[in-house]
Design brief:
This protein is α/β, with parallel strands linked by helices and 123 residues long. It is 40% helix and 19% strand. The protein contains 4 helices and 5 strands. A 5-stranded mixed beta sheet has the order 1-2-3-4-5. Strand 1 and strand 2 form a beta hairpin. The longest helix is centred in the first third of the chain and has 15 residues.
């Protein structure tokens, strides 16, 4: 299950990524992210829910990196990733590629904590 939406008022991108089963599905998600970002202004924040994300084969990491590069170019200012407390390392794949792109996302254990971080309520 994937969800991509923009909150224009908060100037925030919301991504929920589950298991990506094919290159075509990955490309469709990447295209959806690019389309939704048209509704956001430079300086937008990004909340990425990775609780159901499963590691991709390394050969597909270029897609993660490409989307992250796009987000940087589009003006993302801060990223928070909601991750499972136990049993999943999918977020590591996002960390590895985002550090190469030039930013580091923060972690949260639930959606409210992520919102609080992005809203400046938590350091």
């Amino acid at each position: 299950m994937h969800s991509i939406r923009a909150d224009k008022e908060k100037n925030r991108l919301y991504l929920t990524l589950g298991k990506l089963d094919s290159l075509e599905e990955m490309m469709k998600v990447a295209e959806g992210i690019r389309d939704v970002c048209k509704d956001l202004r430079s300086g937008f924040t990004c909340l990425t829910d990775l609780r159901d994300f499963e590691l991709l084969d390394e050969q597909y990491e270029f897609l993660i990196s490409g989307v992250q590069e796009f987000l940087v170019d589009a003006g993302v200012s801060e990223v928070v990733r909601v991750v499972r407390k136990y049993g999943s390392w999918g977020h590591i794949q996002f960390d590895k590629t985002s550090m190469n792109v030039g930013y580091r996302g923060r972690y949260a254990n639930d959606m409210q904590e992520a919102e609080d971080i992005l809203d400046g309520k938590v350091d």
